[in-house]
Amino acid sequence: MVVLEFKGYHVLKMEYERNLNFDDKKDEAGFNPSINVSFHTNNSKEANVILGFSSKDELPFNVEVQIEGIFKYNAEKDETKLGFETLLKKNATAILFPYFRMILSQLTGMGGEYPPLTLPTMNIGDLIDRQNKE
Question: What interhelical angle do 93-109 and 124-133 show, nearest 10?
Answer without folding.
Answer: 90
